[in-house]
Amino acid sequence: MAEEKKPKIDLKSRLGKTPAPAPVAPVGPPPSRPPPGGVGVAVAAPVAAPSGGLPGVPVGPPPGYAPAPSPALDANHPLAAAAGYRPAPSAAPAPQLQRIEVDEMAVQQAAKSARKQGLVVGIVIAMVLGGVGYVAGGAAEQGAGRAKSKGDAKELSDSVGKASVSLKTLAEKMEAGSNSLIKEHKFPDQLAKDLGAIHVDFDGTQLAGRRFSGFPQDTTHELVSFITAVEGVNDRKAVIQRLLDRLQKPITEQFAIPAGTVKINYVIAVDKDPSGNPMGLLSTLAAPIQVTPQNISLPPKFTFANPGGSGNTELPRYSGGDIAKSPAAIYVVPKTFDTVCPSAQNGQIAQLGAQIGDFIRTIRGEGAAPAGSDTVQDSKPGLVERADKLVDALNKI
């Protein structure tokens, strides 16, 4: 069989090498031979030869010669370190580059979704931290508010207690004045001065800046109601003061009349009208006449205010005869006049007594009507009793 012709392999094109220039023959000892039984590694130290070279000394491989690659030594070979071991080049093909296409819309949506998720997470964290801070701050504020409520309750209790003392003092002064006016028939000339020196200091400013978080609802309501009642007492006290100042003179004069005596203040002048009919004219005496019921001594003439004009006039006291022919005047019995026309002084005394009595009942309170009585009256606590109950309620807070 004929021998097939083998194709020629171009090693230079496969190794990607171009023919190297002919090297200059080295000068020196021949390369050492490998030790027997091993794989030889050619180690040459090229030395530049002088110009022209030496005859008979090999210069190097002929042009175009490429030495075959030395086989790679095993890493466990004892000469691998001396021979500059390098691992055999891998024959795996180089990785092929691949083009990756990315959808820009998907990238934008992913970025937006990430931002939203981050925002939501941030809000949730902020809410959690805010809730924790609110709870902690609320607890601290509640504790501080509770402590302030206790302090406010103590201060209000002290103020109500002082107001109660003032109310009791007012009631005592009014009761003394009422006894002087009604029972002793003496004007209480010091009462107006005493009332001016007493002021029940408990108004709406007492509640300014207070914390009522720990106050029962009925206690708060009673505080407001008590303030309103105290303001009413102070106003009525001022009214009684003005009334005492105005009535002091007439009431004092009325009480100055000795017991068992009366004053004649009015007379009736008898005259004829234009038609000739007898008539009586009521007038006030210029000076009251003080008499006793058992010994009525009258002057011969009465001086009284002119009923038909200005100034005073006088007429003889009627002592007998035809009064139609001779004008005269007769006196009016005080008791009968007071029945028809109550005395101003007596009315003023009654008015003042009623004001003082009502003031005392407001402070002291009113008891229920006695059993079997025709009147229906419920007991009504006074301001002193209400103040005492309010102090107890405030002390319990």
Task: Describe the protein in words.
The chain is built from seven helices and seven strands, in the order ααααβββββααββα. The protein is of the alpha+beta class. The chain has a domain of 147 residues. The strands form three sheets. It has a three-stranded antiparallel sheet, with no helix packed on it. A two-stranded antiparallel sheet has the order 3-4. Strands 6-7 form a two-stranded antiparallel sheet. β3 and β4 form a beta hairpin. α2 packs across α6, α4 runs antiparallel to α6 and α4 runs antiparallel to α7. The longest helix is centred in the middle third of the chain and has 80 residues. The radius of gyration is 67 Å and the shape is elongated. The chain starts with 10 loop residues before the first helix and ends with a helix. The relative contact order is 0.09. About 9% of the residues have low confidence.
